[in-house]
């Protein structure tokens, strides 16, 4: 039975709490008490999780073939609205006397526990999501267009029912509209970010081809639609927008097997990383798993078989998978039925389903062999590229060996720099490598460091911009070959994060534009040649203070400040008679000060360098390194704050 009994039993609702009401309420309270357990955090990331949960429910409807448009609208009052054109959330009355939609929005196990039907969905988690969003919102308003009627239900203050399910009228529309406003008592910020939501919806659109995602921001009168007819092909096209492709994008799809597979890939030249992005049931699997392993195995087999069968290489000269994958961008998305869906470890970051390995392995092998056979010119180019990678990798490996054994290779460049002040500990994961701008700061850092765990590598001048050169050219650069050898884990496709001699790589530069430039050049290098260091969260920026504030009568008691806000607080704390010192560079601090402010684990601040979303990185690179200077200027105007310094100068002048 789909329709609800009318009127709703108000009497029962007003009688007070039943045992079941209390149970429902306590579940919601549980979410409010430990939001982190459900959405990871209560910062901006957690805030946006509320949106993803609701969007996912709409996406599931579209996946099941109901509706092909999802609207997301950021409202001026701080709320957000998600609308789909599916069947509408069920409103039928459950045996407990509570309508299905209410159960879905107030219980964590609406699938089995209270509802007659099991509304379990592809990701398996939904239903939980709607409840979590409701529990963490100031209000949550649901309007349903279903089987000719408009229904409405409203919750406030963490999921308390304020408007029981009501019928508002009749309609020919079908779908669901959910509007909610996150609770500012729960989140550290309640500001929805256009970029965050836009990137997420774009990713969803790539994964779910032929569904429109329409984002509007009424705060700024912005709107954007994402719609990709070619799905993952367009994803790869976007990821490679700043690169030089070798051949076309290969696209393969298997919709008919138990495990559905979609795969797009393209190789690029002058790209020394392996860029594989995998998804299981539309959730990014950051740590890979069986589908990724299957892809690697199938691809290696296919390229080798084709090359040997066509007499390009001998059986004994088999190509290494690392070389085959150098410069490859691949996106693989699998849909695994719930009954065989398994993850490895605590999070959903690694797919464990064994059947996904053989399915993807076989599918990739068949598809790639077939493609190569039909595109011989491309196949020959590809194998040439792989052989070049192999030669470069062998050279890099020799360098790594030389570093490990301490033996000098024939090139002077390959010895570990005598400038390195090494750490004493052999517990590598605890060790930190500071890459420091300038010899004078390097000197202070060497004196002030914790010798057991901190190593210092001073840099001479500006590093090379590795974005515009080949790997061979990069390897000839003394600064970078020193960094490669010091870290000791190889480079490019040969890089193995397990071999790194440091748990943290910390870039320490002056807090000025030159320092920022050096940071960018070093990060570009790590991104191009040691990407796993970044994806494993091992690269950091040191945050030296910008100002020191002290009472004129007590010049040795300095409060260090990172920004204008800290500065204002420090001035207030000290009161009248303060003086401000502006630190223009690391070199202006003595060893003790540098250690206390920037290096000491107990007192320093570090910024961890992260890649949340590969698309964001590519977009930013295309803006910052690309050909259109006006895009770059706009970005800098919007994102770089020079004001701190200006206000400060004004103050000093006073
Ligand atoms: C903007 C949010 O929630 N749409 C939506 C949700 C559901 C259905 C349709 C639906 C599902 C089924 C049958 C079924 C449901 N979600 C859940 C749960 N949009 C939005 N549209 N009829 C309608 O799966 O059989 C249960 S029903 F639990 F996942 F939230």
Spans of at least 5 consecutive residues with low confidence = 1-14, 111-126, 408-414, 642-654
Major β-sheet profile: 8 strands, mixed
Average pLDDT works out at 87
Give the % helix: 40-55%
According to DSSP, the number of beta strands is: 21
How much beta, percentage-wise? 15-25%
Strand order of the largest sheet: 5-4-3-6-2-1-7-8
Structural class: alpha+beta
Q: How far do the termini sit from each other? A: 77 Å
Shape: globular
Spatial extent as radius of gyration: 29 Å
Query: What's the tally of helices?
Result: 23
Bound small-molecule species: ligand 1YM
Summarize the structure in words.
By secondary structure, the protein is an alpha+beta fold. The strands form 4 sheets. Strands 5-4-3-6-2-1-7-8 form an 8-stranded mixed β-sheet. The protein has a 5-stranded mixed β-sheet with strand order 9-10-13-11-12, sandwiched between helices. A hairpin with a 5-residue loop joins strand 9 and strand 10. Helix 14 (439-448) packs across helix 20. Residues 1-14, 111-126, 408-414 and 642-654 have low confidence and may be disordered. The site of ligand 1YM has 21 residues, from helix 4, strand 2 and strand 6.
